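Let's sit down with a protein and look at its sequence and fold side by side. We need material for that, and I hope you will provide a protein of your own picking. Once you have written the record down, we can walk along the chain together.

***
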Amino acid sequence: MDGRSSPSHSEDELEFHITFPAPNLETNLTFSSNLDTEEVTEPVVYILGWEGCEDDELEWLSSIYESRGFITVRYTAQNMDLQILRSVSTEPIAVRLAGLVSELCLTESPVFIHACGETGASLYQFLAKELKTSGSGSAVRGIVFDNTNICVSILTALIGPWILVYTRHWFHPSPWQSIQCESVPPALFLWDGSREWVEKAGRERQGSGGTVFFSRLDDQDGFNRRNMAEKYEKDLVEFIIHCSDQSN
């Protein structure tokens, strides 16, 4: 099922793709809708693509979640090469995506976010905020930072992780700051060996009291998920199983 809507800004046609899993009692994971109840609901994962990727590049990743019973929402923001300075255009996207939870009657479902690249990390910051505002924030059970380029912009390198962005009369911390300082939800950091700052962010988050999993994936052709499919899927599934166990 594909979902499309008209964005509230002019720079990006908001196009997202929603997929519902086929029932499979052998592989689907179960999550309690509330930690105080035994009611079981289908989990939802937002897959936030890296800048410039096509939706078909996310389908393989989406299939990993679908095979475990997840409803997947795939979205890639375009033309956001300076995400840290463009929160005014990012927030409406996050509002729209967060609203899908109630539109699809999934307000009791556990939510995961899989953020790829710098674009995904930047959007995650605002999506997590909007989910919390809409009342779904407590349902966020896990976040995956997938080779997240969280400290590569020139501005970030010059000023450091404590960049503050003025938008809508409020200051927002940079993705780097948010990722490091959060202690919830549990997080998995996937990265290649050339991006040691990704591991550093994970260690900082761990130091803030967060539950953190690490997976270093090295490939001679760079960070190619399909070339490392076996380890990539193994580490990802182990993480979501851990989060599933914590909810039951």
Observations:
- The longest helix spans residues 229-247.
- The first strand starts at residue 2 and ends at 4.
- Residues 2-247 form a domain with the Rossmann fold fold (CATH 3.40.50.1820).
